[in-house]
TrEMBL record:
Segments of skewed composition (Polar residues): 427-458
Gene3D superfamilies linked: GroEL, GroEL-like equatorial domain, TCP-1-like chaperonin intermediate domain
PANTHER family in the record: BARDET-BIEDL SYNDROME 10 PROTEIN
Name under which the protein is recorded: BBSome complex assembly protein BBS10
InterPro entries in the cross-refs: BBS10 (IPR042619), Cpn60/GroEL/TCP-1 (IPR002423), GroEL-like_apical_dom_sf (IPR027409), GROEL-like_equatorial_sf (IPR027413), TCP-1-like_intermed_sf (IPR027410)
Gene that this polypeptide is encoded by: bbs10
Pfam families found in the cross-reference section: Cpn60_TCP1
A Gene Ontology biological process term: chaperone-mediated protein complex assembly
Region of interest called Disordered, as start-end residue ranges on this chain: 427-467
Single GO molecular function: ATP binding
Signal peptide range in chain numbering: none
Coiled coil: none
Length: 588
């Protein structure tokens, strides 16, 4: 049996509106959390938009379509799930109000709504880059210093703090922000460049260790790698020693040996093992890192020869050690690969013991491990998600510098998004009729909050400095500043063929500062004051106006991608005219 459900703008708005009512309560650093109960009776508390959406039981196909769009967006930018829903809801409401006013039938309203949505997407692809260059980027500041892509701890802390504050409590967010800053700065070997960001993002699963049952304040950053196993044979090594990485057993396998031949086999096995150990001693190997369990005879030989052994190591951990330290193969009997470790320690924390090894710094990274503690497993997993998201966001922000510093083959094969720098000349810019004395006019309508999004079709553009050069990694203060500036640009300029659609987008953008409580009269002149402050700052200051204050910042390019992604999702929803509900029947 098949049931057809006609989908109009009201139907799409009702689906998104239901999600928006859940998200609105959790927006911003002062937002609340959502309590979920599982079928097993356990509870789950979170304020992260992605976790809230995925935990909901969404039956309607349109709701699952929205969830798919949000998940795709989150995988690329790790931010903006709550604002995505709120801004989408506000935009659909504005489209509904316009189409219902001028159209009488549902079909006419849907056709007009689709036309407006397609115009908005076309505007984002054709004009949005130039609008941002003219009206938003002049008020932005660079997160990094102009030369060498170096970043100061204060600037990095403001960017990470703005990300973490909306996902954890204030005390937990402050501690986690400091830990992430320490992890980045220690990994960079003191140079504070952007190259280690790719390393931290891709290897974070191996660069953190979870310790439940302790307070989050006991978390710290340790030099070297903390392996997921304890030492089978423990011999502390404070000085640099050689370690052998094994992927197979060192002893002979006794399968298929008869009882009569066992004595002869044991003698041969002991003789071969003795030869192996003589070879290892000649190579000055005093640590064995094995991915498999070794026979008891191997452990006994290690105990007699003052050699530390750790068994059943994750192969990916050995691969990381190999990549960082540049291990070389042992040609004799294919023993394995040898690497030099700076120390070997036994780490005991939270009732668990781990093998802790140090590695020589390999430019441009010096491996460190984040020891992450939390009283409950649920909070621990939330902290991990926040850390992973913050690193993804950092990689997104630093894409221009990463493209400049990474070799071409790494740039092609890495998961860094390819976003070419656009050439914004005077000939390609739209003709704007913009009032110099205009300021954002705030009214009272729906709300929204900050978000990040990536679109393959609309790459971000770099900010322009006062001297005309590019200001990479442009940032603005959090709290709706980007939306206020873009609203001002869309409201007081004329774009041929996009007048009505730009007005709708401008009205929808105001939902972000309203949700965050920025609809106060004294904040209406804030964009102009920031512009005057930037003009007075030294050329090439690289964001000194933001480093000198305690304001948190967010990426301009990420906010641009949010706008584009919401528009594309709106088009996708409005192109659906009917939903077919099929019921599967089973014959006895």
């Amino acid at each position: 049996m098949c049931v057809k459900e006609c989908v109009c703008v009201d139907a799409s708005l009702s689906v998104v509106g239901a999600l928006e009512r859940v998200m609105r309560r959790c927006v911003g650093p002062h937002g609340g959390s959502v309590l979920f109960t599982r079928d097993s009776g356990g509870t789950f508390i979170t304020r992260q938009g992605q976790q809230i959406l995925t935990a909901l039981n969404l039956d309607h196909p349109m709701a699952r379509m929205v969830l798919e769009c949000v998940c795709t967006h989150y995988l690329l930018t790790a931010d903006g799930s709550k604002t995505f829903i709120i801004l989408l809801s506000t935009l659909l409401q504005r489209i509904r109000d316009v189409t219902h006013t001028h159209r009488k039938t549902c079909l006419d309203s849907m056709a007009a709504a689709r036309q407006l949505a397609h115009q908005l997407v076309e505007f984002s692809r054709v004009e949005l880059d130039d609008v941002l260059v003219r009206s938003v980027f002049p008020h932005a500041s660079s997160l990094f210093r102009s030369q060498g892509g170096a970043v100061e701890r204060g600037a990095l802390q403001r960017l990470i703090s703005g990300y973490v504050a909306g996902r954890l409590g204030s005390g937990q967010a402050e501690l986690l922000t400091g830990l992430l800053c320490d992890l980045y700065l220690k990994t960079t070997c003191g140079a504070s460049t952007v190259q280690p960001i790719q390393f931290l993002h891709s290897q974070f699963s191996l660069l953190h260790t979870l310790v439940p049952g302790l307070s989050i304040g006991q978390s710290l950053v340790l030099e070297g790698l903390v392996l997921s196993r304890d030492w089978s044979v423990w011999k502390e090594k404070e000085e640099p020693v050689r370690a052998l990485m094994l992927c197979e057993s060192m002893g002979m396998v006794a399968s298929g040996v008869s009882v009569c031949a066992h004595q002869d086999w044991a003698q041969r096995a002991e003789f071969m093992l003795e030869q192996v150990w003589e070879r290892l001693m000649s190579l000055q190997v005093h640590v064995l890192l094995s991915t498999v369990r070794q026979p008891q005879c191997v452990l006994q030989w290690a105990e007699l020869n003052d050699t530390a052994v750790v068994e059943c190591v994750d192969p990916t951990e050995l691969d990381l050690i190999w990549q960082i330290s540049g291990a070389h193969a042992v040609t004799h009997q294919a023993l394995g690969r040898i690497v030099t470790v700076t120390f070997c320690k036994r780490l005991q924390v939270g009732g668990c013991r781990y093998a802790h090894v140090g590695l020589h710094p390999a430019a441009p990274v010096h491996a460190h491990t984040l020891l992450l503690c939390a009283p409950t497993p649920g909070l621990l997993q939330q902290c991990v998600c926040v850390c992973e998201g913050a690193l993804t966001m950092l990689q997104r922000v630093c894409q221009p510098l990463l493209r400049q510093t990474l070799p071409p083959h790494q740039t092609r094969n890495s998961d860094v998004c390819q976003t070419p720098v656009l050439n914004h000349s005077q000939n390609t810019s739209p003709v704007l009729d913009h009032s110099q004395n205009s300021s954002p006019v705030l009214d009272h309508s729906q709300n929204s909050s900050p978000v990040l999004k990536h679109s393959q079709n609309t790459p971000p553009v770099p900010a322009q400095s006062d001297s005309g050069g590019p200001v990479v990694c442009a940032v603005l203060p959090v709290g709706g500043m980007f939306e206020l500036l873009l609203h001002d640009a869309l409201s007081h300029a004329s774009y041929h063929g996009y007048t009505e659609s730009c007005r709708l987008l401008a009205e929808a953008l105001l939902s972000v500062p309203r949700t965050l409580g920025l609809h106060k009269p004294h904040l209406q002149t804030l964009p102009r004051s920031l512009c005057n402050q930037r003009q007075q700052s030294a050329v090439g200051s690289g964001g000194s106006e933001f480093r000198s204050s305690l304001v948190c910042v967010e990426s301009v390019s990420c906010k641009q991608q949010l706008v584009v992604s919401v528009l594309e999702c709106a088009v996708r929803m409005l192109c659906v005219s009917a939903v077919l509900h099929t019921a599967v029947t089973y014959s006895p």
